[in-house]
Amino acid sequence: MRDWLYQLTGKAWIALVFGIGILGWAAYAQFKASSDTHGTAVEDLVAKSGTIFSGSEVTETTKRRRGGTSTRRYFVLDAKLADGNTEKWRVDYAVGRSKLEPLIDEAVEVRVDPSDNNLVYEVTLKGKPVVSLADVQKIMEVKDKAAASSATDKGTLIVGALALLLGIGGLLVRRKIRDGYLAEQAGAVQTPAIGEKV
Known about the structure:
Strand order of the largest sheet: 3-2-1-4-5-6
Mean pLDDT: 84
Largest sheet: 6 strands, antiparallel
Number of strands: 6
Helix content: 40-55%
Number of helices: 5
Structural class: alpha+beta
Strand content: 25-35%
Order of helices and strands: HHEEEHEEEHH
């Protein structure tokens, strides 16, 4: 029984890492939701201008490893830049089709995040904002709060805390069993009698 328990507690570090991971994810999601900036920082956005010649709505469905699917929807604006190159600008689905349809065949100025597939944060048409930076940041804030809500629900926190406690407990039990083995081995070693040659 003791050997079996020793083997079982050898895997306690997995529960410990799992618990730390879940609780760390929850803490990060909560931190991100409570931060002052949501999405990319304004100074990291790149200003571009071009004429939008088409647009489309994209629905991506991905399968998860353990069953279920995840669906993500967004708009893609195809733009021709001043140098003749074309680019695709991605717009969050929450912005709405009604704001984007009037932009077809119009020259616009945008601020995009090149590190996030050219996600559009601001669109200006003839000097007037069509999609404002504040609106997109508000959309990002709502998404961050939704992610924090799912990461910090009671079930997730309980699973993380239980895994952490099981991991710590398992490592402590394993150490106690190992110390018992070492004590038995030390007691079993024959000490020579005085005058006896070893």
